[in-house]
Amino acid sequence: MAENNNLELNKENKNLNFVEQIVADDLAAGKNGGRLNTRFPPEPNGYLHIGHAKAICMDFGVAEKFGGTCNLRFDDTNPVKEDVEYVDSIKEDIHWLGFDWGDREYYASDYFPKLYDLALRLIREGKAYVDQQTSEEIAAQKGTPTVPGTPSPYRDRPVEENLDLFQRMNAGEFEEGSYVLRAKIDMASSNMHFRDPIMYRIIKHPHHRTGTRWNVYPMYDFAHGQSDYFEGVTHSICTLEFVPHRPLYDYFVRELADESYCPRQIEFNRLNLTYTVMSKRKLLQLVKEGLVAGWDDPRMPTISGMRRRGFTPRSIRNFIDRIGYTKYEALNDISLLEHAVREDLNAIATRGMAVINPVKLLIENYPEGKTEMMEMENNPEDPAAGTHSMPFSREIFIERDDFMENPPKKFFRLAPDKEVRLKGAFIIKCTGVEKDADGNISLIRCEYDPDSRSGMPGSQRKVKGTLHWVSAAHAVDATVRLYDRLFAVENTSEYPDRDFREMLNPDSLKVVEGVKVEPFLAENAVKGVKFQFQRIGYFTPDYDSTPDHLIFNRTMALKDSWVKEQNK
Ligand code: ATP
Ligand code: MG
User: Fold this and answer.
1) At what angle do helices 159-171 and 112-124 cross, to 10 degrees?
2) Annotation says 280 is catalytic
3) Quick one: 350-566 is in which CATH superfamily?
4) pLDDT tens column, 271-322
5) How far does residue 331's CA lie from ligand 2's centre (Å)?
6) Active-site pick, 91, 104, 204, 270
7) In CATH, which of 3.10.180.10, 3.20.20.10, 3.30.460.80, 3.40.50.620 is domain 33-268?
8) Whole-structure pTM value
9) Torsion sign (Cα): 428, 430, 431, 432
């Protein structure tokens, strides 16, 4: 992008977040030759969650905004936990969110040779040494922020010996944990990360890309900044927990960079959400222990789970836009995300009728064997969405909850001798009920007003309640999965002494069989379609759904939109 445009943006746009402002200033100052290159650096050790979506929106978003580029870099430095399954899912999720890295797909493992060479150079320059203490000994010598650490007895090992040992570490001569390569920096530094941080450890586990070529693997702090440098990344945007790592990032990067180009780390606040967890380790545990059905279980805070549940990319991006980027940790209310989902689905979802808890209703004065097709709006928010027809007949299903034999005063739904409107059809009046041996209502008897057909003058009559319904003879059976929040407590981190699994919401999934849906819903139940079951909520077919056994996920219960719609 031309520099002029950057300057324009810088001057004009008061709505830049603080990261964008830093980028704009750097571009205006001509840093890195006026180049902007960010990166999103997932470790392929799990599926992406909505916290990652926040980072993705930042990394790709800022590049888009200022005409730069964003790399996708897999931070694959720990072969024990990583897998191609995760690589594939990460790529799918980023694309689904609407971002693209073009041909800039990189792997930290591609830099293992260069990093290894850099490590050799630092050893030769007396800036790194091989330690052979146990990790416990090393930890015990670290000191505390106020008490300086104790130097390792191997700190002053001669260069030749360090070179020899490091090469033998990589040749596979030593067991895991027996040796590490450490940077020789400052055991008394007030920044704990400067107290001779570990650069390399021995791992004898095949890597998903490099196989058994390496026996030593770089630590995050030794790999990340250098990978940024090798790729030409100018702005390395990450989350606040890396603030104390930044001096070390700069320290290692200085070994490579000069004034003409030097990557820079900038930190923003993580996304934390109420009623869920954002730790990949915990999410993996839920998956492995079968406490959820998989990484894409619709209750999971993963991108794949939200996709399966029926969230749209736009709703996730809108939510992230609204919570914004700051330098302070916060806990975001999950209802803000839910609001964003409803808002988007309200605009795009196709309306149809489904009865979740059906009770049969017989219209005594409607001719037997007759079927009329009623015209239904597909989406009142979007006239271009058109209409579909829905069969009406003598026997229909309505929700059991929409009828009360002895209703309280403000009950505006169906009750003996009361009238309601059947949405898009006729006004009916209850004439009686039939009950089974247990006293449960098995049939509601009604009469309809033939002049009240929707759209005809007789339908203008004021009737308080409007119900959804499905023609019994035409209804298709379906199963619905009703999801609720994954955890029963708002903030699991408030209970460090409790096992997080104990705080799971036992009612996070309710399966309801025998749901009756109108034929239009059944015919259009293809993967990814978004429906609003009138008065119930937003639904999408689950991946397990087949034409012979329809299964719908409830994306979100409906809130107030019905109140507005029912009077139309
Ligand atoms: P871990 O490192 O513990 O495995 P992680 O969630 O940090 O887990 P990474 O794959 O390292 O996973 O994350 C990739 C990028 O996503 C990093 O830049 C990280 O800062 C960012 N990120 C991770 N979690 C969040 C979050 N909750 N909010 C915003 N950004 C996040
Ligand atoms: Mg991380």
Assistant:
1) 160
2) yes
3) Ribosomal Protein L25; Chain P (2.40.240.10)
4) 999 999 999 999 999 999 999 999 999 999 999 999 999 999 999 999 999 9
5) 19
6) 270
7) 3.40.50.620
8) 0.93
9) positive
